[in-house]
Write a structure and sequence with these properties.
Elements (H helix, E strand, L loop, with lengths): L7 H19 L7 H18 L1 H9 L2 E26 L2 E28 L2 H9 L3 E2 L6 E3 L2 H6 L9 E11 L9 E4 L3
Parallel strand pairs: 4-5
Antiparallel strand pairs: 1-2, 2-5, 2-6, 3-6
């Protein structure tokens, strides 16, 4: 009996289809309740503030703080990532957003991480709210804060529109990033 083996395009297509179908199930598009999700956002911010004093300093001057407590990323040659977040202004939730990204190339694995973006200008917040899906890397300038940048960051040296922190990484996948992610406002 002849058995046909799957070729690379079929494997890639099957993997992409599985990622696209399973990722939204792993993180519900709508949280069971906004109040429960807001608690996840609060806990994620607390965790970031405990480990990164620079984030606490930025929060005091930020015009808006966009928090994605958990983003899931998975891939096998073709990958994707998804997460839900909330935009805070003056300590209150003013909108909900999702982040989605696709990628291809040599990759295998799955991971989760959180990220927070501090919007330092009213114009940057307006850009987020007016865009019909903002791709990170296009529009307002974003500085990705690592340990080195965090040590020299102060409220007097902040000149960029947005500062982003990635935290709470877990899982097995080479690299984590949000460059190229698309952030879209969810309907209320």
């Amino acid at each position: 009996m002849y058995r046909r083996s799957a070729n690379l395009p079929e494997i890639v297509l099957t993997t992409l289809l599985a990622v696209l179908l399973l990722l939204p199930m792993a993180v519900p598009v709508r949280a069971a309740s906004n109040a429960a999700f807001d608690l996840d956002v609060k806990h994620a911010l607390e965790k970031l503030y405990l480990t990164t004093p620079a984030a606490t300093k930025l929060a005091k001057k930020a015009k808006g703080i966009l928090v994605f407590p958990k983003v899931l990323k998975a891939g096998l040659m073709v990958g994707g990532q998804y997460g839900k977040g909330a935009l805070l202004a003056n300590g209150k939730t003013v909108g909900y957003y999702n982040t989605v990204a696709g990628s291809y190339g040599f990759q295998i694995g799955a991971q989760s991480f959180g990220f927070v973006m501090f919007f330092m200008t009213d114009e940057a917040v307006q850009y987020l709210n007016k865009s019909e899906g903002w791709e990170i890397g296009v529009g307002p300038s974003v500085v990705f804060v690592d340990d080195g940048v965090a040590k020299t960051l102060s409220t007097t040296t902040t000149k960029s529109d947005i500062y982003a922190f990635i935290f709470d990484q877990s899982g097995l996948m080479a690299g984590v990033g949000i460059q190229g992610s698309k952030i879209t406002k969810l309907d209320p």
